[in-house]
User: What shape does this take?
Amino acid sequence: MTRRLGTISFGVALLCACLLIAGPAQAGKPPRNFFGVVPQGGLGDQDFEIMGKAKVGTLRFHVNWANTNPSKGNYDWSGIDPDVRRAAENRVRVLPFIYNTPGWVAHADGHNCADDCGAYAPRSKQALDAWATFLRTAVKRYGPDGEFWAENPSVPEVPVKAWQLWNEQNSPSFYKPKPSVKGFAKLMKAGNSAIKRVDRDAEVILGGMFGTPLGGQRPALSAWGFLRKLYGIKGAKRTFDGVAPHPYGAQFKSKVLAQVKLFRHEMVKAHDGNASLWITEVGWASGGAPNPLNRGLKGQASRLKEAFKYFVKHRKKLNIENVDWYSWRDSSDSAAGLCEWCPDSGLLREDFSTKPSYDAFTSFTGGS
Assistant: This one.
């Protein structure tokens, strides 16, 4: 997540991109994992019980590399195991996004970042080797026939089948000291190789990208501009199976859908039309401070209905694999919310009472 400005303007490129997607809409009921949520804070038993009733299909959640791998060869899965277990018990598949560089890895790259090293993505061979080792270890634990499932035979095995690498790498807030397409391409190459070495059938997804971080000002890069440059690097296209927009905007068609189509345009232009789209964040708020993304209780629900209806109807045409609502539940924790409208972005209020947007969500999933 980055600070959301709510409005994004597009020029002639948008009109061209919208014309590139032609052909009849393709409907059909999507699989359960098509519909997902993203938490903005910690999760408890009650969260997972409600997810099960709501028939949430996917939980996109953060695997904090720094916390899980605090020193070389040392792994602490205690922050992840409970969520994987409770998700599996409620038939929810997890989609981890791996982010937050440990200090010992950042220091190997020469960064003097004290305790704030998370956004310094690995770049040297030594740091990239540490990245690859962590990913291999994670897949061995949570992937098919992984160690976690062997250690917990009473838990229904719902292995991780897709891994998202990094988060909003086109923003200097998440990729320091500034976004680097070449550097990110190396990160993806090392990560993809490590994951496929353990599970060759796993899907590797690009870190989700917000359209125009910093309002489109340097050193940030637009998401579609970053993707275009990534495709321009020889061999980069072979290091990922899916592309992940974070298409926030006040209006669905003119802002959100427009961004999705700009992503799709770059994919088609790069002859990568078979790659899937994973919309790993999209959402609006139901209240809070005035903001273009604050649409009120009814407006939040109507935006969800409009977006999900379109994505379901056109999922095959746009090759959409998954859509994740941000966020699952409201949070008044100022440390958890990453933007001014985030605290009220949930389908649930902080006390677990449901909003109209929850009813809208379950109308698609068949939950209650």
Q: What stands out?
A: The beta strands are 35-38, 58-64, 93-99, 162-165, 203-206, 209-210, 242-243, 245-246, 276-282, 320-326. The first strand starts at residue 35 and ends at 38. The domain at 29-365 is CATH 3.20.20.80 (TIM Barrel).
